[in-house]
């Protein structure tokens, strides 16, 4: 069926005007009734954030998402497009997408008077009905609302006070759509005044000329809670006109975090440079995700800034890249990610958090290494909490040490691991089998060694590699360990 091309044809279809908020409400009701996901790809908010956003849309509210960085705020706002109709008719050529039955700009009024039912109609797809702006201190009222254009006035012979001389800003151009403003508190006070004035009264003043613009637009915002609640960051009348404040959060469980990271990280690089696809063992994924959880609890990291979910995403991508690079250099067909690859991913960690004073004294690199160690210890306990590993620790206490280069080949490391009795057999706890590829067994064995190091059972440094945490007492000078791990000095007999 051909779409109407003129106003007269549109009227004959019994087209009815519907506001943006009514349109979003209607489409949301349909999704809820059908049991369809509201925001596909948004994980961990099903029982918290999504119901609150749904209530705001059903209430036809403008709303704001309050949350720290990396909590999917912008992604949620962009997902709102799916609640709009596929397309809507508007008067062809109109700068602000005027509804053919309810125009608001002077140019469209004059065009309707001139053409009547022959006025041409165009269609606006949903992808063009979303306008997003990052609030920065240099944003002007002309950027958001508009300004008078002397060139328009001169060419058209209009007075400067005429609405026909306005160059419309982003907000009027979002008419009949969604206008999103990121980091709202960073917007200058006079721009905030312009926003709440157009939200409530529908009019603005440009260069002292009052202009009536009853825009049909859904306004949505994002902000950091620290800035939003700080005095002087946002004007009270604007806060009062925002219908709902919705708080976002980081993943509540490790499983949710891993699901998000797996969804967002670019790890599928199968068949590009190797015969077999790259393998990421489950324990490597868990350590990478646990790093983010540990960082959010670390006292040396600023809680007000937060630790973005982008940290484990970029870290896992770097882990995969390091494993890929090592396999290429050693001409290996089966690249497997290992714990040492996480340390190689430090550049993707240190830029994702802000340090407190104590952390600044130690440095971002040192803090990141401590967090990796804590995360490794937590995951290691999950797998080996009740598994006896005394024989491995004893091997080092008896003088054994293990050192290999960061980019050493699988065969080289595998031959060294075989010299440690029982090490490769312990990988069975991780679900591995003796017949598995050596690269996989090496990854599991390295995890065991890193876990013992994280729990301070053995030591490790760049010069010596893995070695005993403390030398084992000799038979000539036996020492008894008291409760609590304290070893008293050797007592001399009294004369």
Structural write-up:
It is a single chain. This protein has helices at 7-12, 20-34, 49-58, 73-79, 106-115, 141-144, 150-156, 170-173, 189-200, 225-229, 236-241, 254-264, 282-297, 310-329, 339-344, 347-350, 357-362, 364-384, 390-397, 410-417, 438-454; strands at residues 63-66, 87-91, 121-125, 130-134, 146-148, 166-168, 177-182, 203-206, 209-212, 217-223, 244-247, 458-461, 465-468. With 495 residues, it is α/β, with parallel strands linked by helices. It is elongated, with a radius of gyration of 32 Å. Helix 20 packs across helix 21 (438-454). It folds into 2 domains: 7-247, Rossmann fold (3-Layer(aba) Sandwich); 254-468, no CATH class. It has 21 helices and 13 strands. The protein is 41% helix and 12% strand. The N and C termini lie far apart (113 Å).
How is this fold's topology laid out?
Elements: H1 7-12, H2 20-34, H3 49-58, E1 63-66, H4 73-79, E2 87-91, H5 106-115, E3 121-125, E4 130-134, H6 141-144, E5 146-148, H7 150-156, E6 166-168, H8 170-173, E7 177-182, H9 189-200, E8 203-206, E9 209-212, E10 217-223, H10 225-229, H11 236-241, E11 244-247, H12 254-264, H13 282-297, H14 310-329, H15 339-344, H16 347-350, H17 357-362, H18 364-384, H19 390-397, H20 410-417, H21 438-454, E12 458-461, E13 465-468
Parallel strand pairs: 1-10, 1-11, 4-7, 7-10
Antiparallel strand pairs: 2-3, 5-6, 8-9, 12-13
Helix pairs in contact: 12-13, 12-14, 13-14, 13-18, 18-21, 20-21
Quick summary:
Helices cover 41% and strands 12% of the residues.
> Looking at the chains present, what oligomeric state does this protein adopt?
single chain
Radius of gyration: 32 Å
Q: Which strand-content bin applies to the residues?
A: 5-15%
The rough form would be described as elongated
Largest sheet: 5 strands, parallel
Number of strands: 13
Helix content: 40-55%
Write the CATH architecture name of the largest domain. 3-Layer(aba) Sandwich
User: Order of strands in the sheet with the most strands?
Assistant: 4-7-10-1-11
Terminal-residue CA separation: 113 Å
- CATH fold node name of the largest domain: Rossmann fold
Number of helices: 21
Structural class, from helix and strand content?
Answer: alpha/beta
**Mean of residue pLDDT?**
88
Q: What is the CATH C-level name of the largest domain?
A: Alpha Beta
- pLDDT < 50 runs, ≥5 residues: 476-495
């Amino acid at each position: 069926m051909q779409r109407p091309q003129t106003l007269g044809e549109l009227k004959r279809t019994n087209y009815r005007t519907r506001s943006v908020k009514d349109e979003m409400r209607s489409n949301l009701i349909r999704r809820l009734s059908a049991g369809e996901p509201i925001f596909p790809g948004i994980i961990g908010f099903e029982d918290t954030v999504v119901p609150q956003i749904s209530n705001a849309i059903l209430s036809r509210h403008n709303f704001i998402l309050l949350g720290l960085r990396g909590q999917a705020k912008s992604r949620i706002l962009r997902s709102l497009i799916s609640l709009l109709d596929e397309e809507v008719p508007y008067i062809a050529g109109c700068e602000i997408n005027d509804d053919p039955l309810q125009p608001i700009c002077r140019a469209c009024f004059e065009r309707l008077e001139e053409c009547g039912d022959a006025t041409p109609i165009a269609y606006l797809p949903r992808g063009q009905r979303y306008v997003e702006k990052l609030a920065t201190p240099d944003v002007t009222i002309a950027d958001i609302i508009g300004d008078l254009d002397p060139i328009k006035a001169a060419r058209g012979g209009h007075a400067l006070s005429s609405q026909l001389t306005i160059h419309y800003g982003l907000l009027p151009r979002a008419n009949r759509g969604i206008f999103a403003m990121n980091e709202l508190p960073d917007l200058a006070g006079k721009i905030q005044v312009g926003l709440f004035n157009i939200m409530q009264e529908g009019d603005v003043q440009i260069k002292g000329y009052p202009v009536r613009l009853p825009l049909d637009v859904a306004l949505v915002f994002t902000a950091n809670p620290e800035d939003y609640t700080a005095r002087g960051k946002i004007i009270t009348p604007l806060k009062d006109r925002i219908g709902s404040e919705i708080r976002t959060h980081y993943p509540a469980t490790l499983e949710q975090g891993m699901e998000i990271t797996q969804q967002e990280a670019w790890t599928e690089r199968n068949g590009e440079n190797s015969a077999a696809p790259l393998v990421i063992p489950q324990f490597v994924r868990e350590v990478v995700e646990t790093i983010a959880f540990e960082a959010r609890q670390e006292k040396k990291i600023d809680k007000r800034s937060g630790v973005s979910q982008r940290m484990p995403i970029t870290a896992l991508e770097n882990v995969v890249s390091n494993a890929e690079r090592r396999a290429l250099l050693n001409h290996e067909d089966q690249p497997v990610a290992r714990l040492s690859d996480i340390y190689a991913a430090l550049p993707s960690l240190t830029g994702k958090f802000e340090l407190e004073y104590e952390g600044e004294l130690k440095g971002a690199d040192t803090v990141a290494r401590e967090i990796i160690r804590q995360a490794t210890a937590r995951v290691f306990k999950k797998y080996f909490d009740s598994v006896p590993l005394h024989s491995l620790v004893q091997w080092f206490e008896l003088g054994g040490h293990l050192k290999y280069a960061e980019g050493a080949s699988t065969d080289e490391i595998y031959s060294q691991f075989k010299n440690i009795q029982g090490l490769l057999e312990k990988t069975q706890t991780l679900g591995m089998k003796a017949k598995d590829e050596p690269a996989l067994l090496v990854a599991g064995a390295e995890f065991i060694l890193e876990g013992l190091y994280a729990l301070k059972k053995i030591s490790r440094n760049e010069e010596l590699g893995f070695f005993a945490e403390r030398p084992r007492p000799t038979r000539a000078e036996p020492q008894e360990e008291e409760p609590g791990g304290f070893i008293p000095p050797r007592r001399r007999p009294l004369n």
